[in-house]
Design brief:
alpha/beta; 194 residues; 11 strands; Rossmann fold
C-alpha cells in the first residue's frame, strides 16, 4: 500500500479506495484503506500470490506498511498459518479485524512504525516465511532498513519489495535478488538470504 505524494498518488479529497480480498475463505470481504493510500490493485495482488504459489499455505507472513492489510489478510485467507500486519494508521485494519472476529485469530496487528516493529520482532526471535514490504512514496526504503527486515526471514523465506516502476532499490546487504515482476506500475522484487 502506498501513500500519496508523487504523481499517480491519491488526492486527499478523494474517498478511500475500495479494496476486497480476491481469493480464499474471505474472498470478497471489503477492507478499509487509509484515505491517503493507493492500495495494491487486485490484479497485482493476484499475480503476487500466483508467484508465491506453494510458499503461502502454512506460512508465517509479515506485512510491513500494511495500509488496508490486504496482502497479509489475503495470505491468511489463502491458507497462511498467521500474519503480522504493521501499519502506523491502523484504524481501518482494526475495524476489519473487528468485523472478522474470532475468524481472524491468526492475524496480529502492530500499530506503529515499521522500522521499530522490525527491531521488536527481531528481539523476540520471530521469523517469517514471507516478508512483504510496500513503503509509501514519501518513504524511500534504505537498503540497510530492508536488510534488517531480511533478518526476520526463516530458512528458505522470501522478502518481497513492492515499488513503483522506475523506483526500485539496488542490492540489499546479505540478500540476493531472485526475481522481478512488473504489473502495470507495480513492481515486485523478490529477495532471499545469501
Amino acid at each position: 500500500m502506498r501513500t500519496a505524494g508523487r504523481p499517480g498518488g491519491r488526492s486527499r479529497s478523494l474517498p478511500p479506495p475500495e479494496v476486497r480480498i480476491t481469493a480464499g475463505r474471505w474472498k470478497g470481504r471489503r477492507l478499509e484503506a487509509p484515505a491517503e493510500a493507493r492500495p495494491t490493485s487486485a490484479r497485482a495482488r493476484e499475480a503476487l500470490f500466483d508467484l508465491l504459489g506453494d510458499r503461502v499455505p502454512g506460512a508465517r507472513v509479515l506485512d510491513l506498511f500494511a495500509g488496508s492489510g490486504a496482502v497479509g489478510l489475503e495470505a491468511v485467507s489463502r491458507g497462511a498459518a498467521s500474519a503480522v500486519l504493521v501499519e502506523s494508521d491502523s484504524r481501518g485494519i482494526r475495524r476489519t479485524l473487528d468485523r472478522l472476529g474470532d475468524d481472524a485469530a491468526a492475524v496480529r496487528l502492530i500499530a506503529g512504525d515499521a522500522a521499530e516493529a522490525v527491531e521488536q520482532l527481531a528481539a523476540r526471535g520471530e521469523l517469517f516465511d514471507v516478508v512483504f514490504a510496500d513503503p509509501p512514496y514519501r518513504l524511500e526504503p534504505s537498503a540497510a532498513g530492508l536488510a534488517r527486515a531480511g533478518r526476520l526471514l526463516a530458512a528458505g523465506g522470501v522478502l518481497v519489495l513492492q515499488r513503483d516502476h522506475g523506483d526500485e532499490p539496488g542490492g540489499l546487504p546479505g540478500m540476493k535478488a531472485v526475481g522481478r515482476r512488473a504489473y502495470g506500475r507495480n513492481v515486485f522484487v523478490f529477495y532471499e538470504l545469501l
